[in-house]
Specification:
elongated; single chain
Length: about 140
């Protein structure tokens, strides 16, 4: 039983793992991407509440979801380029580089685009579902008329 508690204490949970990945990927860009993710979730909920409003109000809400998701993806890619430039500068100054060190540096540059891409995919799936539900709602209204 004691070994089980020791195992649980040493095991890193989901949020601990997420925090360590954010620190590895660069706290500035990763924090911006996480904030954009939460902003996108807010816009998704807001668009869900505007399903029954006029067409232009709903389209504006969906447009905001798409724009925030795209911004997260672009920030992820842009921060990858900035970090790659720093990695290549560091390796150039070192001269002979160990391949495992090079692979570790490349792994760190891939974290912001992965988080940005995840945010983008969630946003696109949400807009697909919102438009699908909206069209189903409009079809019900047309059938009643």
């Amino acid at each position: 039983m004691i070994s089980f508690f020791i195992y649980l204490a040493q095991r890193q949970g989901f949020f601990g793992q997420l925090y360590s990945r954010i620190q590895e990927g660069g706290p500035f860009s990763m924090t911006i991407i996480i904030l954009l993710f939460f902003l996108m979730i807010f816009f998704i909920v807001r668009a869900g509440m505007k399903l029954r409003t006029s067409s232009h109000v709903f389209k504006k809400a969906v447009y905001l979801v798409n724009q925030v998701a795209l911004l997260a993806l672009i920030i992820g890619l842009f921060s990858q380029l900035i970090v790659l430039i720093g990695v290549f500068d560091a390796f150039e100054s070192l001269g002979d580089v160990n391949p495992s060190l090079f692979a570790g540096g490349l792994k760190l540059t891939l974290l912001p685009p992965v988080f940005g891409g995840f945010t983008f995919i969630i946003g696109r799936i949400a807009t697909f579902i919102l438009n699908w539900v909206r069209n189903a709602e409009l079809d019900k209204v047309d059938m009643k008329a």
